[in-house]
Amino acid sequence: MDAVKLREGVYWVGGIDWNLRNFHGYLTPRGSSYNAYLIIDEKVTLIDSVKYYLTDEMIERIRSIIDPSKIDYVICNHVEMDHSGAIPAIMELAPNATVVAPAAGEKGLKEHYKKEWKFSIVKSGDTLSIGKRSFTFVQTPMIHWPDNMVTYCPEEKILFSNDAFGQHIASPERFDDEFPACIAIDEAKIYYGNIVLSYNSQVQKALEVVNTLPIEMIAPSHGIIWRSHIAEILKCYTKWSSNDVDNVALVIYDTMWGSTQKMAEAIRKGFETKGVKVKMLPLLHNHISQVLPEVVEAKYIAVGSPTMNSNLLPTVSGLLTYLKALSPKKRTAFAFGSYGWGGQSIDQVQNELKNCGFDLLEPFKAKYIPDQPTLDAITSKVAGYIA
Ligand code: FEO
After folding, report:
1. Is the pTM of this model over 0.70?
2. Of 163, 238, 316, 381, which residue is 20 to 30 A from 192 by alpha carbon distance?
C-alpha cells in the first residue's frame, strides 16, 4: 500500500475502512477513511493517525516514503481514537519523536494511553518550523472535543482540518475532483448533522479564523480532500452553522395501528397548504442518524408517538435522546400522537422538544382512530401555525 502524493513532499498515509457500517451509532453505508498526512522536510512530520486496526496499513504507506523511525513530530489535532489509535505504535517506532498537541490534547492522550511521550504544547497562533515549511495551529475546542485543533501550512496553503469538513466515505479516490462532489458534500452534511450540529457557535468562531487564511487544499481526517470545491464546502459550513434554515418541515413519527401515521399525513397537508416543503420520516424506515442531517436545514420539526404502556415508543424515545444531544437553536416544534386511555406520550414528547430548546407550538392528541373531521382540524390548525 503506497502513500498518495498531495504535493511534493506532502503525502496522504491514512487507512481506508471499507467495512465500517456504524460509527458509534451513526450509520455509515459508504464506510470511512482515517486520513493521516506525512510531510517530508528537514523535520519529518506526521499529522494525525488512524484507528488501531488500520495501524499496519498506515505504517506500510509511511514506509513507501520513509522509514517511520525518522519521524520527528507527530501532530495530534484530536485525541479521539479514530485519529490517535495508531500513535502508540508510531511512538514505538519513533521513540524520540515529539507529540505536538494543545494542553487538552496532551491530557487526553495521557489519559487514553498512559504513556510518557515527549510533548510540545501549542495554542492558537503558535507556529512550528520544520524547514522550508511551517505550521500554524488554531484551536477549535468543542468541535467536537475539548482538545480539537486544526493545523495550517502557509507555504503549501493546506489546512489539515481533522474532523471539520470530513465525510464518512471509503473510496480509492482521494480528491474532490476525482469523486462525485455532490456525494462528498451530501456526506459532509450527514457528518455535520450527526457529529457537529450542537456546536454551531464554535464552528462560526472557527470559520472566522479559517476565512482569513489563503487555502488551496482542505485535508480533513475523514473522506475526500477538498481542492476544487473549497468555496462550496466553506459556504455549506457557513450555512449549516448559522441556523439559516429552509422553509422545510420534518414529520418524524412511529405508529402502532396507523392512527399516529394518519395524524402525520394530516400535519403534512397543513404544512403543504402553506407552501412549506415536507419530509416524512417514519422511524420504522429511517435510522436516527438519517434524521439528524435533515434537521440541519429544517425550520419545523413535528414528532409523533402513540402512547404504549403509559410511555412513548422506544424508537421515538431514542430519536429524542439523540436529538436533544445535538439540537441546534432556532427551530419550531410540536408533538403529536394517538392514544387509548392515558395519552402520556404526547406530553412526554412535547417536554423533550422543550428540553431541546425549540420554540414550541401546541401539540395534537387523538383518541384511538382519528376521524376525518379530527384530521381536517389538525390540517387546518397546522396551516394556521404558518405565518
Ligand atoms: Fe473523527 Fe472526533 O473523530
Report:
1. yes
2. 316
